[in-house]
Amino acid sequence: MEHPPLPVGEVLAPGYTIAGHLHQSNNYDVYDVFSEERACSCIAKARRRDLTDKEAARLALLREGDLLEGLTHPHIARHYETIREPEPVLILETLTGETLAYLIDEGYRRLPLAEVAHLGLHLCSAIHYLHGQGILHLDLKPSNIVSERGMAKILDLSIAQAPGPCRKGAGTVQYMAPEQVRGDHVDASTDVWGIGAVLFEAATAEPPFNAEYEDETASEYTTGSSTGTWTDAKIEDYDQISRRADPVRAHRRVPAIFNTLIARCLDPDPAKRPSLPELTNGLRSLV
């Protein structure tokens, strides 16, 4: 690992001891920690130790904590607290399942369509709730979804925002809607695109766009540029700008309604995408 995380046994924050390192992104490390107060394991998200002077990453983490505070939904990972000083740390519930990305990559066969449809219903439910709170997720992807005892749970609101203009290229390359790539207006239809992209990959085991690109967040919510991202890529480098997604049926036999729903979700024109209620009703017909 290029930037080593804090070691096991280190105190990450008062009352939280590191039990293991789970993931590293452009700006953050995610740890398994033991909570003295709760006498159990929790998940902690903190700035990478080599970026403790990066103010934008600190503010972004606090902002994510503020967004998570008060959210209560069975398909969104629960936020316990935000430690603000001396270093910001988000404390979240431990999820015992696997990420959808792992299930897709390691499965010996593609996911049954009924499971894909159930996944879609869970995502629609969580995103409907977020939209009711005035929040767009904007980074729906298999690695941000955990399957736990048949329940899908969404992670990571690091680039979430209210509807309106977005930061150009903020998101993940394979799953960004065209309006995110261009830095245009984003709204509920942008997250519908994200659900469609996730369901496309869940059904076909291939992302709808830029399949050869490693799944990394292209630009976390900071005011400066990130390292190792496509932040500086030209617009024409993004597949979703130059072509439509393949039909799901080009990769797998599926009912016509599912094929049509995903194609509509991934329509380049946001006005032509289904609403969340339309998408929900279509998925219900499959289960």
UniProtKB/TrEMBL annotation:
Residues 16-287 form the Protein kinase domain. Keywords: ATP-binding, Kinase, Nucleotide-binding, Serine/threonine-protein kinase, Transferase. One of its GO terms (molecular function) is ATP binding. This is Protein kinase. It comes from Rubrobacter tropicus.
